[in-house]
């Protein structure tokens, strides 16, 4: 297995040596949490944390913002918004978000940097979110728990998990709200997205086969990983003219977005000459990715989309591509990607 090198966010303001991790060898055991709080506070579909031997350095902690939830203190980089650390207020333990791990050598093909031992809080999303698609990873059965082991009588049975997948695939576009709601966990970034403007003649890479729903897929590129803090970034692709503030003012995009304050908590990080990434400066949730080279579409992080029915995959609004992911060659959790594409 590869030897880990360090933990980092994309901008490098938060960096820790691999010796801080609880183990020196990959893959590292962890659980994947699907609770509403984790999704809405990060923008991911689920989160996984890697245990640390000790707290992060003072230098790293000086460069993060703390966001407190009922049990945890969650930390994200002040500059690029990457979710980096978690602190369990009950046990005192510290952990790092799995996507912040940079390996000295990329793991061998088909291997993960994280070894998912179980899925927890699968009961929070109505259709189980992404968990029912990740119950078999590298030919190993991964149990799903309604809440946590010790609180439940036992893992969710396979028949029920298949039923949850059916709920995800049968989402009805006719029963949804008039607009798609976007809101991070703290609610300081809240937006409205109108229905797709497509007709039977619409055709482009970001338009799926169902013109009543927005196209969505996972991205595994290094830049997305190190600004989200998790290894799989879920995006849906929306024309900018469809995105509004709560008072129905068009959201401004492009280079000038950094100069105009429409939503006070929405902070931007320019990760390259042509790319602007946006996150909530209060809770750290990833909100947008925009490329100035393709101004006709904005990437919206799926974890902050609020489903009327409580669906994490937001099937009433989104059509998921289960045949490909973006930048698969940069994936560091390849076995999770295989499970998602093959389930």
Automatic annotation (TrEMBL):
Origin: domain of life: Eukaryota
Name of the protein this chain belongs to: Mss4-like protein
Pfam families: GFA
Keyword Cytoplasm: no
InterPro entries on file: CENP-V/GFA, Mss4-like_sf
GO MF annotation: an example: carbon-sulfur lyase activity
Protein family according to the UniProt entry: Belongs to the Gfa family.
Keywords (A to Z) from UniProt: Lyase, Metal-binding, Zinc
Keyword presence, Metal-binding: yes
Residue ranges of domain CENP-V/GFA in the record: 3-127, 180-321
Source species of the chain: Exophiala viscosa
